[in-house]
Amino acid sequence: MTRLLPPLLLTAVLLAAWELACRALYLPSYLLPPPSAVAMALIQRAPLLLSSAAATFWMAFQALVVAFGLGGGLALAVSLNRTTERAVRPLAVALQVTPVVAIAPLVTVWTGLDHADRAVVALAAAVAFFPLFSGVLTGLKSADSDLERLFDLYCSTPLQRLLRLRLPAALPFILEGLRVAAGLSIIGAVVAEFVSGSGATQGLAWRLLEAGNRLRTADMLAALACLMAMGLALNAAVGALERAVRRRLA
Q1: In a 10 Å sphere around its CB, with 0-12 CB exposed, 13-18 middle and 19+ buried, how is residue 70 labelled?
Q2: What is the DSSP letter of 143?
Q3: Burial of 109 by CB count in 10 Å (0-12 exposed, 13-18 middle, 19+ buried)?
Q4: What is Dmax (Cα atoms) for the chain?
Q5: What percent of the chain has pLDDT over 90?
């Protein structure tokens, strides 16, 4: 409770101030609805928002799995050879700094216009790729140098060195990369759905576009609240996994 109470109190104060400001200034609902109107929109559109949130979460989860497999596997491969790492890292950075909106049309064409969900997963995976690649690679190179020399002394095989030294040392970095990538996968899924040009995915981004076109600001804020809740839940799940792993290693 000591950890939860301060943010809950601050949230309650901010919501109360928002409600009072909307009523005192007589703001039109299409410009800024009060929190009570947003809560009503959440209740009234709960089935639709839940189904859309499930669609967005499923695409983000698939993207996170793909990014973890590709980023972690590539980091593991290049960590064995410094020349390969020097060759691959600039390409990984280039992928990270390329805006997802710039490659969205290409990915949509490559995956097929009838498979918008594949485009969303691919684009979200591209967004979440670099934190996992960087975290795994940094972690694999963070093993204690004295222990590295000890493994050399005992003539350990590369597989023994990887499983018994480098992977345990890399776990905190991997989990931190996973925490960052989890949030980015949701962001990537939403942005990818915005720019994919299709409502076939029917995720929360499509609900935002739909409500925005009709000037239903309360519905937009309700969808945003669902996205925030989803991101916080995923972050909390990864945080719980990280704490469990740390306790096991302690």
Answers
A1: middle
A2: S
A3: exposed
A4: 76
A5: 15
Residue the block writes with tokens 């990864």: 238
Q: How far is the C-alpha of 9 from the C-alpha of 14, rounded, in Å?
A: 9
Contact 210, 202 (CB under 8 A): no
Q: Convert the pLDDT of each residue in 81-101 to its tens digit.
A: 788 888 888 888 888 888 877
- Long-range contacts (CB closer than 8 Å, 24 or more residues apart) made by 94-98: 95/126, 95/129, 95/130, 96/129, 96/130
Q: Which long-range contacts (CB under 8 A, 24 or more apart) does 39-45 make?
A: 40/218, 41/216, 41/218, 41/219, 41/221, 41/222, 42/222, 42/225, 42/226, 45/219, 45/222
- Tens of pLDDT, residue by residue over 34-61, are 999 999 999 998 888 898 889 888 999 9
Buried b (16+ CB within 10 A) or exposed e, 175-185: bbbbbbbbbbb
Residue found under tokens 């960087």 = 134
Q: What percent of the chain has pLDDT over 70?
A: 96
Instruction: Assess whether pLDDT exceeds 80 at residue 248.
Output: no
